[in-house]
Each structure stands twice: as C-alpha cells, then as structure tokens.
Amino acid sequence: MNDALKALREKIDTLDDQILDLLNERAKVVLDVGKTKQGSKSAYYVPSREQAIYERLRQHNPGPFPSDAIQRVFREIISASLALEQPMKVAFLGPQATFTHVAAMQQFGLSAQLVPQKSISAVFDEVARGRANYGVVPVENSNEGVVTHTLDMFMESGLKIYAEILQEISHDLLSLSARMSDIERVYSHPQALAQCRKWLEENLPDVPLIDVASTAAAAQLAAGDRSAAAIASAAAGAQYDLRQVKANIADNPSNFTRFLVISNQIPAPGGHDKTSILFLIKDEPGILLRMLEPFSKRSINLSKIESRPLKKRAWEYIFFLDIEGHIETPAVRDAVDELGDYCQFIKVLGSYPRAV
Ligand SMILES: O=C(O)C(=O)C[C@]1(C(=O)O)C=C[C@@H](O)C=C1
C-alpha cells in the first residue's frame, strides 16, 4: 500500500471513531428521552419529529455527502435509537419482500421487528390485540386507485392512522438466468401484470401471464423454475436470488403507492399534518354541496375525497375525506363538528404528518 493511501485510511479510521463516539452520545440522550416519555406517557415513535430531523439535516448539508443519502443513514440511526427506548413490533401485509414490506422498512428501519401477515385484516387484528405496536397496509396506487379492503377495514375497526408512507414502485422483470430467451411464463400479482401489460405485449407476446397472490410469491415461484420470470420489486429479487432481466417495465413509469401506518393512538400535532375522516351523510337534497362548506368557509384544503358503498343498505355511501391540518387545531375541529350536523355518523380516522 502506498504511503498516501495509508495516511488517508488512517484519517478515515479517526473520523469513524469520532462518528461512533457521537452515535453513542446520541444514544445516551435518546435513552434519556425514553425515560422522560415513560413519565409523561408520550408516544415513543414520533414520525413528525423524524421528518423534521431529515429535513433540517438536508437543508444544512454542506456536501459532498449526498443529501438524498441523509435520510437512509439517519433512518437507521433513529431506528436503532428507538429500539433502545422501546423495541418496536410492526405487522405488515406480507409475505416478505412485498412492496408493503419495503415501505415498512423505509418507515421503521431495520432495527424494528417486522412481522408479515397473510391479509390486511390480520394486520389490523395484530395491532388491535396489542400484539404489534403498529401495522402497515397499502391504501392506494397512483394508477390503480384505492385498496378497497383497507378502506372497508376502517369502517369496522377502531384503529387510527398514525402516519402515511409514499413509495415509488418499480416493477422489475426478474429471473434466475436474466435472459429474455429463457422465459416461458411470467408470474405476478394481477395489478402488477396490468401495470406492465403494454411492455409484456410488445416484448413477450406469446408468453402466458399467470396471476399469483403477491409479487413476492411470484419471485419465489421464479426462483424454483429456470423457464419462469416474475414481475416484482428489486427487494423480492434480492430475497430470492433472482437477477434483473429488465428494470421498471411498468407502462407508466410514474407509479406511486401510498401506505398507512395504523395504531391505537393519534400522534400529537407536528406542524405539517393532515386529517382523515369517514362519514355517512343524511339523505337530503343538496347535502353533497353543503358537506364541503364547513371546509371551504375556513379555507381548509381538501386533498382527497373517496366514496364506498355502505354494505348494510343499498345505494348509501360512506365518504372518506382527507383535509389539511390536525384535528386538535380549532379550525379543523370546528369544521369536522359542523360536518357532523349533516351526517348520520362521522369518525376521525387520524391526524398524522403529510408524507413528502
Ligand atoms: O425525539 C424523540 O421523541 C425521540 O424519541 C428520539 C428519536 C431520535 O432518535 O431522534 C427517536 C424516535 C422518535 O421516533 C423520534 C426521534
């Protein structure tokens, strides 16, 4: 090794020692935060605080360390710190290596214990019974629309939305050999196949497409069959030792899925919050117009409205509304109370930090 390289590596060792000392100092402070919270019964996991940390560091970063790596690095520092305060158990819609699993890892980091569940209702059940601190479920995709099962679960469940996660979805074509010419069948979840339909017609026109329960299950099947390929996430490829035939084969390359973190509590206001509510309006003329007035007259922005049939009675609809602001702020509270006057019932599903 030449002298210059040796000297530079020694410098890196010294800096790494300093980083480690600082990580330990930080961990001690986090343990003190944990003790303070124990006394005050505050939540250990505070997504708005985590977002504020990432944002502040991104803005203060003088470089050349890349700003977009800051969140990934600090995600793991915070995840390990939080595990010192309280070990986290998080249920997610499995199996391993689904997009929901990737979203859960992105939100909670690798120090949380992530537990796959067979269905969306099983995720709700784990959290409701206190067997998991939080749950992660998909709620809508930018191309395919809402995940109706998740919305339906909120009608029955008393659980709250604690945070949202926005994830860019990349559908990769994966196989053991990575050769197009070896592919005799393609497995995937029906939604993923639908999102890649045009690419498949143009590039693999005679190959049968086979629906399976999840993109992760597709990857598992492709891992056992040299003549098969799967459309799944890069994480699923890594989990099942598959190689990439082609990255991001979705017909619309801009593809995002929104996931919800569910919990027994609502987090305290964080400054950039949104509130989700569910309600059933009374059957009166002009009611659809009037139900928006409590928000428009207070200049509260509505970011989303969705309706689902009320299964108990035909032709009646439940509405899901997302509005800007936290339910503990007076304007939002008053608007929701006023909306309640037009409703047969109304339920606040949660106030939580807006994902950026
Ligand atoms: O500030 C807090 O409330 C903490 O618990 C500390 C900390 C951190 O490591 O910075 C850890 C977990 C929380 O989700 C947010 C931040």
From TrEMBL:
Metabolic or biological pathway: Metabolic intermediate biosynthesis; prephenate biosynthesis; prephenate from chorismate: step 1/1; Amino-acid biosynthesis; L-phenylalanine biosynthesis; phenylpyruvate from prephenate: step 1/1
Location(s), subcellular: Cytoplasm
EC id: 4.2.1.51, 5.4.99.5
GO biological process, any: L-phenylalanine biosynthetic process
Primary residence: cytoplasm
Catalytic reaction list: prephenate + H(+) = 3-phenylpyruvate + CO2 + H2O; chorismate = prephenate
GO molecular function: chorismate mutase activity; prephenate dehydratase activity
One Pfam match: ACT
PANTHER family for this protein: PREPHENATE DEHYDRATASE P PROTEIN, PREPHENATE DEHYDRATASE-RELATED
Protein name (record): Bifunctional chorismate mutase/prephenate dehydratase
